[in-house]
Design brief:
Blueprint (H helix, E strand, L loop, with lengths): L15 E2 L5 E5 L25 H14 L3 E5 L9 H10 L3 E6 L12 H7 L3 E5 L5 H8 L3 H14 L11 E5 L10 H16 L5 E4 L6 H9 L3 H10 L14 E4 L5 E2 L2 H6 L25 E2 L5 H5 L13
Parallel strand pairs: 2-3, 2-8, 3-4, 4-5, 5-6, 6-7
Antiparallel strand pairs: 1-10, 8-9
Length: 321
Protein backbone atom coordinates (compact mmCIF):
# COMPACT_ATOMS: atom_id res chain seq x y z
CA UNK A 1 0.00 0.00 0.00
CA UNK A 2 1.28 3.47 -0.90
CA UNK A 3 1.92 5.86 1.99
CA UNK A 4 0.66 9.40 1.38
CA UNK A 5 2.15 11.12 4.44
CA UNK A 6 5.12 12.65 2.59
CA UNK A 7 2.76 13.96 -0.11
CA UNK A 8 0.72 15.85 2.49
CA UNK A 9 3.54 17.72 4.22
CA UNK A 10 3.83 20.95 2.22
CA UNK A 11 2.90 22.92 5.33
CA UNK A 12 0.70 25.59 3.77
CA UNK A 13 -2.59 24.77 5.49
CA UNK A 14 -3.48 27.65 7.87
CA UNK A 15 -2.73 27.12 11.59
CA UNK A 16 -5.52 26.02 13.91
CA UNK A 17 -5.90 26.06 17.70
CA UNK A 18 -8.27 24.16 19.96
CA UNK A 19 -11.51 25.33 21.50
CA UNK A 20 -13.14 23.66 24.51
CA UNK A 21 -13.14 19.87 24.32
CA UNK A 22 -16.60 18.34 23.94
CA UNK A 23 -16.01 14.97 22.24
CA UNK A 24 -13.75 12.04 23.08
CA UNK A 25 -13.44 9.82 20.01
CA UNK A 26 -12.08 6.37 20.82
CA UNK A 27 -10.90 3.79 18.31
CA UNK A 28 -11.25 0.35 19.90
CA UNK A 29 -9.24 -1.39 17.18
CA UNK A 30 -8.99 -1.88 13.44
CA UNK A 31 -10.67 -5.26 13.16
CA UNK A 32 -13.79 -5.14 10.98
CA UNK A 33 -16.06 -7.61 9.24
CA UNK A 34 -15.76 -5.49 6.06
CA UNK A 35 -12.92 -4.02 4.01
CA UNK A 36 -14.37 -0.96 2.26
CA UNK A 37 -12.50 0.76 -0.57
CA UNK A 38 -12.97 4.22 0.94
CA UNK A 39 -11.89 3.23 4.47
CA UNK A 40 -9.40 5.75 5.84
CA UNK A 41 -8.63 3.39 8.75
CA UNK A 42 -7.59 0.49 6.50
CA UNK A 43 -9.78 -1.74 8.66
CA UNK A 44 -10.68 -5.31 7.78
CA UNK A 45 -11.12 -8.90 8.94
CA UNK A 46 -7.35 -9.51 9.05
CA UNK A 47 -6.64 -6.61 11.43
CA UNK A 48 -6.38 -8.03 14.93
CA UNK A 49 -5.31 -5.16 17.22
CA UNK A 50 -7.71 -4.31 20.02
CA UNK A 51 -7.64 -1.84 22.92
CA UNK A 52 -6.44 -3.42 26.15
CA UNK A 53 -8.58 -3.54 29.28
CA UNK A 54 -6.23 -1.12 31.04
CA UNK A 55 -6.48 1.45 28.25
CA UNK A 56 -10.25 1.08 28.16
CA UNK A 57 -10.33 1.84 31.89
CA UNK A 58 -8.21 4.94 31.15
CA UNK A 59 -10.97 6.06 28.79
CA UNK A 60 -13.59 5.68 31.52
CA UNK A 61 -11.39 7.44 34.06
CA UNK A 62 -10.97 10.35 31.65
CA UNK A 63 -14.72 10.60 31.10
CA UNK A 64 -15.41 10.53 34.82
CA UNK A 65 -12.77 13.12 35.68
CA UNK A 66 -13.34 15.59 32.84
CA UNK A 67 -17.09 15.23 32.24
CA UNK A 68 -16.61 15.44 28.49
CA UNK A 69 -20.22 15.18 27.28
CA UNK A 70 -19.82 12.92 24.22
CA UNK A 71 -18.08 9.59 23.66
CA UNK A 72 -17.74 8.73 19.96
CA UNK A 73 -16.86 5.03 19.59
CA UNK A 74 -15.29 3.86 16.37
CA UNK A 75 -13.11 1.17 14.80
CA UNK A 76 -12.95 -1.00 12.62
CA UNK A 77 -16.21 -2.35 13.81
CA UNK A 78 -16.09 -1.22 17.46
CA UNK A 79 -18.74 -3.76 18.45
CA UNK A 80 -16.20 -6.55 17.86
CA UNK A 81 -14.25 -5.44 20.94
CA UNK A 82 -15.15 -7.87 23.74
CA UNK A 83 -15.77 -5.00 26.20
CA UNK A 84 -17.69 -2.72 23.85
CA UNK A 85 -20.92 -3.17 25.80
CA UNK A 86 -19.16 -2.57 29.12
CA UNK A 87 -17.73 0.70 27.79
CA UNK A 88 -21.14 1.85 26.59
CA UNK A 89 -22.89 0.95 29.85
CA UNK A 90 -20.25 2.66 31.98
CA UNK A 91 -20.30 5.81 29.85
CA UNK A 92 -24.09 5.99 29.94
CA UNK A 93 -24.03 5.54 33.72
CA UNK A 94 -21.88 8.69 33.80
CA UNK A 95 -24.51 10.54 31.78
CA UNK A 96 -22.29 10.66 28.69
CA UNK A 97 -23.86 10.73 25.23
CA UNK A 98 -22.60 7.65 23.37
CA UNK A 99 -22.24 7.41 19.58
CA UNK A 100 -21.63 4.06 17.88
CA UNK A 101 -20.04 4.22 14.40
CA UNK A 102 -21.84 1.15 13.10
CA UNK A 103 -21.49 -0.49 9.68
CA UNK A 104 -24.96 -2.12 10.02
CA UNK A 105 -23.82 -5.55 8.78
CA UNK A 106 -22.25 -6.17 12.19
CA UNK A 107 -25.78 -6.65 13.54
CA UNK A 108 -25.90 -10.03 11.73
CA UNK A 109 -22.45 -11.25 12.68
CA UNK A 110 -22.03 -14.37 14.87
CA UNK A 111 -21.59 -13.41 18.51
CA UNK A 112 -23.56 -10.17 18.14
CA UNK A 113 -26.90 -11.51 19.34
CA UNK A 114 -28.98 -8.80 20.96
CA UNK A 115 -26.65 -5.99 19.83
CA UNK A 116 -29.39 -3.86 18.29
CA UNK A 117 -31.56 -4.30 21.36
CA UNK A 118 -28.64 -3.39 23.63
CA UNK A 119 -27.95 -0.18 21.71
CA UNK A 120 -31.61 0.81 21.93
CA UNK A 121 -31.84 0.04 25.65
CA UNK A 122 -28.77 2.22 26.28
CA UNK A 123 -30.11 4.97 23.98
CA UNK A 124 -26.91 4.92 21.98
CA UNK A 125 -26.85 7.26 18.98
CA UNK A 126 -26.05 5.24 15.86
CA UNK A 127 -24.09 6.73 12.98
CA UNK A 128 -24.20 4.15 10.21
CA UNK A 129 -22.29 4.05 6.94
CA UNK A 130 -24.52 3.67 3.88
CA UNK A 131 -22.58 5.23 0.99
CA UNK A 132 -25.53 5.13 -1.43
CA UNK A 133 -29.20 4.18 -1.66
CA UNK A 134 -28.49 2.03 -4.75
CA UNK A 135 -27.53 -1.61 -4.20
CA UNK A 136 -24.97 -1.82 -7.03
CA UNK A 137 -23.08 1.23 -5.78
CA UNK A 138 -22.91 0.05 -2.17
CA UNK A 139 -21.82 -3.48 -3.09
CA UNK A 140 -19.16 -2.11 -5.44
CA UNK A 141 -17.70 -0.03 -2.62
CA UNK A 142 -18.22 -2.34 0.34
CA UNK A 143 -18.61 -5.90 -0.96
CA UNK A 144 -21.25 -8.23 -2.39
CA UNK A 145 -24.39 -8.50 -0.28
CA UNK A 146 -23.55 -5.55 1.98
CA UNK A 147 -26.46 -3.43 0.78
CA UNK A 148 -29.07 -6.13 1.45
CA UNK A 149 -27.61 -6.77 4.92
CA UNK A 150 -27.58 -3.03 5.60
CA UNK A 151 -31.24 -2.73 4.68
CA UNK A 152 -32.10 -5.60 7.02
CA UNK A 153 -30.13 -3.87 9.76
CA UNK A 154 -31.91 -0.56 9.21
CA UNK A 155 -35.31 -2.23 9.32
CA UNK A 156 -34.35 -3.93 12.56
CA UNK A 157 -33.28 -0.62 14.07
CA UNK A 158 -36.46 1.10 12.87
CA UNK A 159 -38.52 -1.64 14.53
CA UNK A 160 -36.77 -0.80 17.82
CA UNK A 161 -37.67 2.88 17.46
CA UNK A 162 -34.52 4.22 15.79
CA UNK A 163 -34.82 6.97 13.21
CA UNK A 164 -38.37 8.09 13.93
CA UNK A 165 -39.50 11.67 14.33
CA UNK A 166 -39.58 11.76 18.13
CA UNK A 167 -35.77 11.85 18.22
CA UNK A 168 -35.54 9.45 21.15
CA UNK A 169 -33.29 7.02 19.27
CA UNK A 170 -31.05 8.77 16.75
CA UNK A 171 -30.07 6.97 13.56
CA UNK A 172 -27.79 8.94 11.25
CA UNK A 173 -26.53 7.67 7.89
CA UNK A 174 -23.18 8.47 6.29
CA UNK A 175 -22.48 9.04 2.59
CA UNK A 176 -19.02 8.85 1.02
CA UNK A 177 -18.37 9.52 -2.68
CA UNK A 178 -17.13 6.52 -4.66
CA UNK A 179 -14.23 8.38 -6.24
CA UNK A 180 -12.03 11.50 -6.05
CA UNK A 181 -14.86 14.03 -6.03
CA UNK A 182 -16.51 16.20 -3.39
CA UNK A 183 -19.83 15.08 -1.90
CA UNK A 184 -22.99 16.72 -3.25
CA UNK A 185 -24.95 19.21 -1.15
CA UNK A 186 -25.90 17.44 2.07
CA UNK A 187 -29.47 18.75 2.30
CA UNK A 188 -30.38 17.78 -1.24
CA UNK A 189 -28.82 14.34 -0.94
CA UNK A 190 -30.58 13.75 2.38
CA UNK A 191 -33.91 14.42 0.69
CA UNK A 192 -33.07 11.92 -2.04
CA UNK A 193 -31.98 9.29 0.50
CA UNK A 194 -35.16 9.80 2.50
CA UNK A 195 -37.42 9.45 -0.54
CA UNK A 196 -35.62 6.39 -1.91
CA UNK A 197 -35.27 4.50 1.37
CA UNK A 198 -38.79 5.30 2.46
CA UNK A 199 -40.51 4.46 -0.83
CA UNK A 200 -38.52 1.32 -1.68
CA UNK A 201 -37.78 -0.14 1.75
CA UNK A 202 -39.98 1.64 4.30
CA UNK A 203 -36.89 2.89 6.15
CA UNK A 204 -36.69 6.06 8.26
CA UNK A 205 -33.56 7.80 9.58
CA UNK A 206 -32.71 10.96 11.48
CA UNK A 207 -30.03 12.75 9.44
CA UNK A 208 -27.67 12.11 6.54
CA UNK A 209 -24.03 13.09 6.92
CA UNK A 210 -21.88 13.64 3.84
CA UNK A 211 -18.16 12.98 4.31
CA UNK A 212 -15.30 13.82 1.98
CA UNK A 213 -12.95 10.93 1.22
CA UNK A 214 -9.55 11.65 2.73
CA UNK A 215 -6.37 11.08 0.66
CA UNK A 216 -4.87 8.68 3.21
CA UNK A 217 -4.61 4.94 3.87
CA UNK A 218 -6.60 2.68 1.51
CA UNK A 219 -8.30 5.48 -0.44
CA UNK A 220 -5.11 7.52 -0.69
CA UNK A 221 -3.15 4.50 -1.87
CA UNK A 222 -5.76 3.84 -4.56
CA UNK A 223 -5.43 7.45 -5.72
CA UNK A 224 -1.67 7.04 -6.02
CA UNK A 225 -2.02 3.78 -7.97
CA UNK A 226 -4.44 5.39 -10.41
CA UNK A 227 -2.38 8.59 -10.67
CA UNK A 228 -5.30 10.55 -9.28
CA UNK A 229 -3.67 11.76 -6.07
CA UNK A 230 -2.36 15.10 -7.34
CA UNK A 231 -5.54 16.02 -9.26
CA UNK A 232 -7.63 15.22 -6.17
CA UNK A 233 -5.43 17.39 -3.98
CA UNK A 234 -5.76 20.21 -6.49
CA UNK A 235 -9.54 19.86 -6.25
CA UNK A 236 -9.46 20.00 -2.44
CA UNK A 237 -7.20 23.05 -2.43
CA UNK A 238 -9.25 24.87 -5.05
CA UNK A 239 -12.41 24.21 -3.01
CA UNK A 240 -10.97 25.47 0.32
CA UNK A 241 -13.33 27.70 2.30
CA UNK A 242 -11.73 29.58 5.19
CA UNK A 243 -14.98 29.78 7.16
CA UNK A 244 -14.95 25.99 7.55
CA UNK A 245 -11.83 26.20 9.72
CA UNK A 246 -13.97 27.63 12.53
CA UNK A 247 -16.03 24.45 12.91
CA UNK A 248 -13.78 21.55 11.87
CA UNK A 249 -14.07 18.66 14.32
CA UNK A 250 -10.47 18.91 15.56
CA UNK A 251 -11.33 22.18 17.29
CA UNK A 252 -13.39 20.37 19.94
CA UNK A 253 -12.51 16.65 19.61
CA UNK A 254 -9.57 14.44 20.45
CA UNK A 255 -9.00 11.01 18.94
CA UNK A 256 -7.58 8.10 20.95
CA UNK A 257 -6.10 5.02 19.31
CA UNK A 258 -6.27 1.44 20.59
CA UNK A 259 -3.01 1.95 22.53
CA UNK A 260 -4.19 5.09 24.31
CA UNK A 261 -2.17 7.61 22.29
CA UNK A 262 -3.95 10.89 21.54
CA UNK A 263 -4.37 12.69 18.20
CA UNK A 264 -6.13 15.82 17.03
CA UNK A 265 -8.45 13.76 14.82
CA UNK A 266 -8.80 10.20 13.54
CA UNK A 267 -7.23 11.17 10.20
CA UNK A 268 -4.08 12.26 12.02
CA UNK A 269 -4.28 9.00 13.95
CA UNK A 270 -4.14 7.03 10.71
CA UNK A 271 -1.20 9.12 9.51
CA UNK A 272 0.65 8.71 12.82
CA UNK A 273 0.68 12.46 13.46
CA UNK A 274 0.13 12.82 17.23
CA UNK A 275 -1.31 15.65 19.27
CA UNK A 276 1.58 17.81 20.43
CA UNK A 277 1.60 19.23 23.96
CA UNK A 278 4.51 20.97 25.65
CA UNK A 279 6.94 19.66 23.00
CA UNK A 280 6.29 16.04 23.99
CA UNK A 281 6.61 13.66 21.03
CA UNK A 282 3.42 11.79 21.98
CA UNK A 283 0.77 12.07 24.68
CA UNK A 284 -1.34 9.37 26.30
CA UNK A 285 -4.95 9.94 27.31
CA UNK A 286 -4.17 9.09 30.93
CA UNK A 287 -1.78 12.06 31.02
CA UNK A 288 -4.46 14.56 29.94
CA UNK A 289 -6.94 14.18 32.79
CA UNK A 290 -5.83 17.41 34.48
CA UNK A 291 -4.97 19.29 31.27
CA UNK A 292 -7.00 22.00 29.56
CA UNK A 293 -6.24 21.77 25.83
CA UNK A 294 -8.01 25.03 24.95
CA UNK A 295 -5.66 27.12 22.82
CA UNK A 296 -3.35 24.21 22.07
CA UNK A 297 -2.08 24.17 18.45
CA UNK A 298 -3.52 21.49 16.17
CA UNK A 299 -1.23 19.42 13.96
CA UNK A 300 -2.24 20.18 10.36
CA UNK A 301 -1.17 18.76 6.99
CA UNK A 302 -2.60 18.99 3.50
CA UNK A 303 -5.27 16.34 4.11
CA UNK A 304 -6.95 19.06 6.20
CA UNK A 305 -8.03 20.61 2.91
CA UNK A 306 -10.44 17.66 2.72
CA UNK A 307 -12.30 18.79 5.84
CA UNK A 308 -12.49 22.41 4.66
CA UNK A 309 -13.32 21.95 0.95
CA UNK A 310 -16.71 23.01 -0.33
CA UNK A 311 -19.42 22.52 2.29
CA UNK A 312 -16.83 21.07 4.65
CA UNK A 313 -16.68 17.64 6.21
CA UNK A 314 -16.58 16.28 9.73
CA UNK A 315 -17.74 13.31 11.78
CA UNK A 316 -21.04 15.20 12.00
CA UNK A 317 -21.32 15.75 8.26
CA UNK A 318 -21.16 19.02 6.32
CA UNK A 319 -20.00 22.14 8.13
CA UNK A 320 -21.88 24.71 6.02
CA UNK A 321 -24.90 24.71 3.74
Amino acid sequence: MHSTLARLATGDFPPLVRKQLDTLQVNLGYRCNQACLHCHVNAGPTRTVMMSDDTLEDVLAFLQATRVPTLDITGGAPELHPRFRHLVEAARDLGVRAIDRCNLTILEQPGQDGLAEFLAAQQVEITASLPCYLEENVDAQRGSGVFAASIRGLRRLNALGYGHGDGALVLNLVFNPQGPVLPPAQGQLEAAYREQLRSHYGIEFTRLYTLTNMPIQRFGSTLVSKRQFDPYMRLLRASFRAENTETVMCRSLISVDWQGWVYDCDFNQMLGVPLVLDAKPRVRLADLIDTDLTGNPIAVLDHCFGCTAGQGSSCGGALTG
